[in-house]
Amino acid sequence: MLSVKNITKKYGENVAVDNLSFTVDKGEIFGLLGENGAGKTTTFRIIMGLLEPNAGEVSLDGKKIDYNETDKIGFVTEERSLLTKLTVQEQIEFYGILKGMDKEVIDKRLNYWLEKFEITSYKDRKIKELSKGNQQKIQFISAIINEPKLLILDEPFTGLDPLNVKLMKDAIYDLKKKGCSIIFSSHQMEYIEDFCEKLILLVKGKTILNGKLSDIKEKYAKKNIFVKGSDIDIDKIKKISGVISVSKKRDELVIQIENKNVAPKVFAIVKNSNITKYDVAEPSLNEIFIASVGGIHE
Fold first, then answer.
1. Domain 2-212 adopts which CATH fold?
2. Disulfide: which of 3, 10, 78, 235 matches 155 by Cβ 3.0-4.6 Å?
3. For 221-282, CATH number?
4. What is the largest CA-CA distance in the chain?
5. pLDDT tens digit string along 245-263?
């Protein structure tokens, strides 16, 4: 388990991370969100022992993170950090040996992951000869070749098409099943909703949201109603107290309401129309992110 307790990091007068605390349990995928400059990268560097916090502490399975513990951490950075003149095999062997692994073990695991990612023919190809998507796969393999206890994923799907995103997702779920603790960071909120049960949202180093995704959505009272049909009196719906907005998305109406108590009033109007869909849904994480971050900037 990763434990982050009350860490603060300052650069002069600027507070990059402000009294941040969270835990990531064994086999859990945890979301760390925030705008650019919110303090995510600083947090990652502190977790990996690259930076010392001004206050607070970080531990992995009860041990302070030092050079011995960093060998148990994998990190997929947003910017690729591959040695492009090396072959795939040379690249992975280089990273594996740095983490104290035997060459035979490295090659065995490399063959497994190349097959998993359907790129076995690239083993002897130089990194610079690969597409961006395949380079991203190699970067992922380099981060997990040591079977880390903790894996940090910062925008791991960059450059991947939908088929390769699925392959990567399957790989992440496999690691989760094996007990790896995973921190997942992305600006694509749909991935966070897919993976993470718990999350933190940082704004200028401060924690704005923290907890289970389901609880965060429940506390955010606004809901969306999705309606399909014909002869719907839109003007009448707009006049209902508690209706925030009515918009059209493809072939359905999206009605945003202040809380779930407004839903029956909307249904009372549309029920006599020729409707084929009426669905009251939780707000998307994207909506909550924009509302939370936007409120801070105002």
1. Rossmann fold (3.40.50)
2. 78
3. 3.30.70.980
4. 71
5. 999 988 899 999 999 899 9
